[in-house]
Amino acid sequence: MNERQLSAKTGPASVVLVTGPSGAGRSTAINALEDLGYEVIDNLPLSLLPRLLDGPPPSRPLALGLDVRNRDFGTNALIETIDQLAARADQNAQVLYLDAAEEALVRRYSETRRRHPLALSDAPLDGIQRERDLLIPIRARADVLIDTTGLSPHDLRAEIDQWFGTGESRQLGVTIHSFSYKRGLPRGMDIVIDCRFLRNPHWDETLRKLDGRDPAVAAYVAEDPRFDLFFDRIKSLVDLLLPAHKDEGKAHLSIGFGCTGGQHRSVAVTERLASALAKDGWHVSKRHREMERRDTQARSDKEPEM
Q: For residue 301, what pLDDT is reported?
C-alpha cells in the first residue's frame, strides 16, 4: 500500500462521486485521487453501487467515476443515489464536479480527435451541449466544483491534492456560497449568515439587473453604515475558525451568505470574503447558486426549438 493511502478508520467511510461533462478532466481527477490513496472504480453502473457500499467497510477512501458512458446513467438515478448516500450515517459522501467552458471542451475534442459519447456521428459541439443540459441538476448538487477551463493536467492534479489530499499535503478547503432564502438553504452548509439587513441594490433601478459581482453593486452594499463592522466581525470569526477546523483534521468547510433574491447582497459579501481569504493563502472556492440557475436558464432559453 502506498504510504499516502489511508488506513481503516472507525468513522464514516469517505466516498467521492466524480462526474462532469466529457472532456472536463474527470479521468485526470480520478487518476489523481488514486495516487492520493483512494480506491478508484470508474464507470460503475449505478445499480451496483448499493451492493458495493453495503459490503465490507473499505479500508481507504473510495472514489467513483460516473458519467454518461455508464450503462444505466441517468440524471434522476444519480440524484437519487446522492440523496441515498447523504442519508447514510456510515458514509461521508461528496460530489466532485469537473466543468469547463463550452469553447474549451470543443477545443479539447478537436485536439484529441475523439468522438463525443453523445454525438458519435455528429459534431462534438452537439454532444457537448446535450451533455451539459443533461448534467445541469447534477452540477447544482456538487459539493466541490472545479472549473478546468484554464487548468493544465498538472494544475488540476494540484487542485485535487488541495481538496482531497491526505497528511501534510492536505489543506482545508473553503467553499463560500451565496443563495436566496426563498429557495431554501444550500445542502451541506456548516455556517450560514443572513445578509438581508444590508441596504438592498434591488431598489436602485440602475443596479437592479446587475449582481453582486459588479463593482457598482459591491460599492452600494459596502456603503451601508453597518457593513464595515459586519464584515470585520465575520472575517475575524472566520480567521479564528479556519485554523481550528484545520487542526481538527476537517477537510472542507462551507460558509453560506443568504439574502432575499441571492443576486446582490449575498453575492457581494461572498465575493469579498472569498477574495480576502484567498489573499490570506486559504484554498477557496465560491458558488453563486442563484446566478448559476439564472445563467443555466438563459442558456436554455437561447436554444432553438426542435
A: 56
